Amino acid sequence: MLEIRNVTRRFGENIAVNAVSLSIPQGQMVGIIGRSGAGKSTLLRMINRLADTSEGGIHFGDRAVSSLRGARLRSWQRDCAMIFQQFNLVPRLDVLTNVMLGRLNHRSQILSLLSIFSDEERMMAMAALERLGIEKTALQPAGTLSGGQQQRVAIARALMQQPRMLLADEPIASLDPLNAKIVMDALKDINQRDGITVITNLHTLDTARTYCERIIGMSKGSVVFDGPPVDLTLDAVREIYGGESNDIDESMTSTSINIPANKLASGATPSVEPQLVAPAGA
Ligand SMILES: Nc1ncnc2c1ncn2[C@@H]1O[C@H](COP(=O)(O)OP(=O)(O)OP(=O)(O)O)[C@@H](O)[C@H]1O
After folding, report:
1. N or C: where does the chain have the smaller number of CB atoms within 10 Å of the terminal CB?
2. Is 11 close to ligand 1, i.e. is its CB under 6 Å away?
3. Which CATH superfamily is domain 2-263 in?
């Protein structure tokens, strides 16, 4: 269980995250939505300690995440993998090496410095690439891959950490709808098959509805919605996105990920375009 207790993060006078408390059980798939600047990235970055809290605490089991230092902090960051909108690969290195870099925190510093990987690590990396359907790219420089392929390499690298939790900061914001679907399907598969908690920031409401069992809506640093997609009513959407007007609708926060059947990999099913659910009587 991840426990975020009354966490605030300030940048000077600006409050990026304001007294947020959340309990996230192991194995949940959580989508965080909200306008640009709502505090979504800052919240994720505090969970894996790329940013520090100003007040409050973050706990995972008996670990006080927000005050870890040294080896214990590195151990936490291994358990808590993160992927980013811009993939953060090393473009001139081949895909296989990029994936094996996910093992760095598992190995001695000297082996890491010399970039010596064992046969077992190579096999593990190939298995991760196969799982993501991109094993044929293993020897290509990562920078030559498409955005969707690069994000899958980043996910394979995260899997090499054997994490308990996967944080994804707008993982599909730079991708076309087909690649967005492939990446979201991969995150869902990792969540369901491996029991890894996935917490992902998303700009697209329909993606959050389709893939996440729990949606957290943030506005101006605070959590203003926390519940299952079915509870995300028109009023809740307006509160999250700040709509006093009546012209907020799902299309404003949507890049449709309906994919023609002939473009889907075998076995995949097109996602259903979800409808905004208005509360009874609204
Ligand atoms: N390193 C920083 N220094 C100063 N201010 C920051 C820093 N990081 C974030 N902020 C500010 O904190 C607030 C929240 O930013 P954050 O990036 O967390 O929002 P977000 O919801 O993830 O937005 P987006 O969807 O555009 O990424 C913003 O006002 C932002 O300008």
Report:
1. C
2. yes
3. P-loop containing nucleotide triphosphate hydrolases (3.40.50.300)
Q: Is the pLDDT of residue 66 over 60?
A: yes
pLDDT tens column, 69-85: 998 999 999 999 999 99
What's the DSSP call for residue 253?
G
Tell me the domain boundaries of the chain: 2-263
Q: How far apart are CA 122 and CA 99, in angstroms?
A: 9
- Smallest CA separation from ligand 1 atom 6, residue: 11
Nearest CA to ligand 1 atom 16: 39
What is the C-alpha separation between 79 and 164, in angstroms, rounded? 5
Index of the ligand 1 atom closest to the CA of residue 34: 21
For ligand 1, what atom is nearest to the CA of residue 39? 18
The amino acid sitting at 18 is N
> Is the CB of 137 inside a 6 Å radius of any atom of ligand 1?
no
Supply the pTM of this predicted model: 0.86
